[in-house]
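lol ok so funny story. i was supposed to be doing the assay writeup but got distracted and ended up predicting the structure for this chain instead. priorities right. anyway since i did it might as well share w the group, maybe its usefull for someone
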Amino acid sequence: MYLFDTDHITALDRGGEEGERFRTRLAHVPPEEAAVSVVSYEEQMRGWLAYIAQLRAEVLRNRHQVQVSNHLKLL
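and the output, tada:
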């Protein structure tokens, strides 16, 4: 069993060199052996919701709500 913390999720979400390196390693882990704690989930969602709450323009808010939706799919 692999339990991923908030830093792992952030790396996957942001991509870049670190995220891609992590994705490559994760590709060899069976999905049923990968897990995220509810604490990491809560930390990620609080961050996204706080960020969206600060946005003033509706267009930006909608775009970032799509990103939150994608983030939920990742988790």
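Residues 2-74 form one domain. The longest strand covers residues 2-4.
back to the writeup now i swear
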